[in-house]
Design a protein that fits this description.
Elements: E1 27-39, E2 43-49, E3 54-60, H1 66-73, E4 80-89, E5 97-108, H2 123-128, H3 130-133, H4 137-159, E6 163-164, E7 170-171, E8 182-184, E9 190-193, H5 198-208, E10 210-218, E11 231-240, H6 244-265, H7 267-272, H8 278-281, E12 288-291, H9 292-301, H10 314-321, E13 328-331, E14 354-359, E15 364-371, H11 376-385, H12 394-401, E16 407-413, H13 414-422
Parallel strand pairs: 3-5, 6-10, 12-13
Antiparallel strand pairs: 1-2, 1-4, 2-3, 4-5, 7-9, 8-9, 10-11, 11-16, 13-14, 14-15, 15-16
Bound molecules: 4-amino-1,4-dioxobutan-2-aminium adenosine-5'-monophosphate and magnesium ion (MG).
Length: 442
Amino acid sequence: MRSPLPDRAVSHPSSRIADLHAHVGTTVTVRGWVTHVRSSGKVAFVVMRDGSGILQCVLVKSQVPAEVWERFAALTLETSLAVTGEVRADARAPGGHELGVVDLVIVGASPLDYPIQPKEHGIDFLLDNRHLWLRSPRQAAIMRIRHEIEQAVHDFFYARDFTRCDTPILTGAIGERAGLFATEYFDEGMAYLAQTGQLYGEALAAALGRIYTFGPTFRAEKSKTRRHLTEFWMIEPEMAWYDSNDNMQLQQEFVQYLVGRVLERKAEELKLLERDTTMLEKVTGDFIRLDYSDAITLINGKGSTTTWGEDLGAEDEALIVADYDRPVFVMNYPKQAKAFYMKENPADTRTVLCDDLLAPEGYGEIIGGSQREDDYDRLLGRIHEEGLPVDEYGWYLDLRKYGTFTHSGFGLGLERTIGWICGLHHIREVIAFPRMMHRLRP
Ligand code: 4AD
Ligand code: MG
């Protein structure tokens, strides 16, 4: 196999396809991978991609050296190559340019058994070949939207003077109820992969006021649903002096900003995904706020058998959002359905000051948030009630012992949010290498 062409071997300036507009009328070299070839015998076309765009290259047999014409014949799907030619503006060509080829060099051949062919493949086959499947336009579009959302997350919080903090992935204490991944940690006993950065985020909020974390989180849940991964990315802001109401206001602005950014800057990718954006465009006004008890009445009226006290299931969430054309907050769940750290609701002590944000179109929970219990004794009581190891939570209780403070925060699941914005059925496609109950490779 030949190694990729070093820059100095190229006699013409090289260009990315996305930058060709600056080179119209000049001769450049473009490097990438073959997506399509066809030939009439006298004129041949190579469509290539380089990650920045796609480009049609035209070879005229009578105008190129015989060996260049022969190399064309050897091109197969995903061959990597360097093509040199004159850039011509052509409104009909994909990307608006065409390359009039004078030279073509094969960098790396691609045998004919390339697994991903232009036909229907089963999802397991595609996931087994995820390292190659990522090269397809649809998958690349999803990765670009993911990138836009990640950048938008940072821009949103930077503009509001939040400090980004990184919290540990190996933890001693635990956060949420769902399954834990554990590993032995030297002489310190068990270490757990973080399910959340929140508890550390609370300590940081007392130091910095407003913070957010953005990192991978892990849940060893045996859930084989279309919205569960065992490794997913979460954005967790934590704000000193915010109550539950302030918290929801921030969530609303945050989600509106993320959706707006994708609509504004990734229209082409949304189109490629055939995403109907009508509902996304409505994510502008105030979101619906529904009390948990009212949500129960609503879903019971629609046939759900979930009773007061239970957490809402995916079907329940779908029944709720079906009535609305924008995201819905379900607020103030019963204590027993939620985590120990949520603040007791003074207006109804059976419940806690929390919210789940449900995305429209049946996508369900994308955010879980709450005001945090700031009373030392009540928090200790909840830790006992849940049978949690009190010693592990000593440092967390200290936050209530030394200058307790009203504070709130939330966690937005990155993959669920992308799945909704892209209009995808399953979140396994929104992360480059998904980790699920039955999938650890590639
Ligand atoms: O509701 P969760 O469990 O809340 C927390 O972890 C809190 N500590 C957040 C906080 O207040 N700082 O998870 C938050 C979000 C969910 O709404 C969902 O979007 C996502 O994380 N999520 C998952 N995404 C993919 N796969 C899973 N298994 C997920 N579990 C939760
Ligand atoms: Mg939740």
